[in-house]
Amino acid sequence: MTPLPIDQTTPSQGGDTGDQPLPGLSPPNLTPDRWDLSGSVRKLQNCLFAVIFLIILVPCSVPQAGTIPELMLADIYRQGLDLSQYRVSEKLDGVRARWDGTHLISRAGKVFAAPEWFTTGLPAVPLDGELWMGRGRYEEISSIVRTQHPHDGWRHVRFMIFDLPAHGGTFSQRVIAMNVLKTEIASPYLEIIEQQQVGSEEDLLKWLHRVIDEGGEGLMLHKDTALYASGRSQDLLKLKLFTDAEATVIGYRPGKGQFAGLIGSLKVRTDNGIIFFIGSGLSHEQRRRPPPLQSRVTFRHQGLTENGIPRFPVFLRIRDEEPQEPALFYIPP
Are 232 and 253 in a shared domain? Predict the structure, then answer.
C-alpha cells in the first residue's frame, strides 16, 4: 500500500461545531427596556442585592495562578426562545480572560503577562471577560497578550467584562452589580459590555446582521435568571453567521490521542492559494477513509484572518460532482 502524504506542520485552529446559519435581514431598530411598577420594585431589589455584593466583595475561592479557570461556556442559539427572558450583547472577537483578584488567567489556565499598570485598580472580586482591541483585530490582540513579558502594547487593550463568577445572584442582578462596579473602579482599561433586551426574533436577527456587516462576530444571549455555573450552559447562548467555501485536499496530518492511527486534519488549498488545515467536522469513518487527494471539499468558517486564512474551519462534505473513492488512510512505520 502506498502511504499517503503526511504533513507534520502546525494545523489551523479547530472550529466551533454545530452553530447554525440564519437568514439575512436588514439592520435593527431596537427599543429600550420598558418596566412596569412590579418590574421597578424588582429592579430596586436587584440594585440592593448588587450593592450589598460590592460592599462585602463576596469572599470567594480564588484559584491559584496556573490552574484552569472554571468558566461558563456558551451553547448554540436555537430559534423559538422567549427572548424576553434574555439579555443580549455583542460577541467580541478577543481573547477570553478571567481576573482572579490578582492575575489575569487564560482559558487554558496560563497567566497573562499583563503590565502592573494594566491591572492596578482592578477589584478583588473575580471578573470574567474578553481582552479586546476592537472589531477585526483578533490577530493583533492575540499577539499582544500572548507575549511572555509585559510591554506597552497592552495600552491598546481593554478588559471587557461580561460576568462576575463569584456573585451569587441571577444574571440580571450581576448586570446591575457590574455597572455599579464600573463606577467604583478608576481603571481606563476596564469596560463593561452593554447588555440589552430585544422585542422579537426579527429584531435579534437584524441586530446580528448589523454587527456582522460592521465587522463583528455575532451575539451572545444570557438568561436573566441564570446563576453563574462552570461548563457549557443553555443559559448562555451564542448566535453567529457562517460562510461556506471550497478547497482542494493536498495532504493529511495524522491524528493524536483518540485519533491515533487516523486522520487528524486535512491539508487543503483554496482557489487563491491559501493553505491551511481542517480538523473539525470529520466523522470517525472520514478520518479512517478521508477524502482523496485533489478532491474538492466544502467547509464552513467564521471569516478570515488578516492573512486570509479561514477562521475555525469545519468540514462539511466532499463536492457531489466528485464521487471518487475515499483514500484508505495509512501512516507509514
Answer: no
Both 207 and 124 in one domain: the answer is yes
**pLDDT tens-digit readout, 180-226:** 999 988 899 999 999 999 999 999 999 999 998 898 889 999 999 99
CB 275 within 8 A of CB 293: no
Sign of torsion over alpha carbons 245, 251, 257, 262: positive
- Please give the Cα distance from 236 to 77 (Å, whole number): 9
Q: Which of 189, 224, 240 is the last residue of a domain?
A: 240
Q: Are residues 236 and 268 in the same domain?
A: no
Q: Domain range holding 119? A: 37-240
Grid coordinates representing 238 are: 451564542
Average pLDDT over the chain, rounded to an integer: 81
Largest alpha-carbon pair distance within the chain? 77
Residue 81 sits in a domain whose CATH number is: 3.30.470.30
pLDDT, residue 320, reads 56
Q: Which of 224, 240, 256 is the last residue of a domain?
A: 240
Q: What percent of the chain has pLDDT over 90?
A: 57
How do residues 91-149 score in pLDDT, each as one tens digit? 998 999 999 999 999 988 999 999 999 999 899 999 999 999 999 888 799 889 989 99
pTM above 0.85, yes or no: no
Q: Catalytic residues, which ones?
A: 91
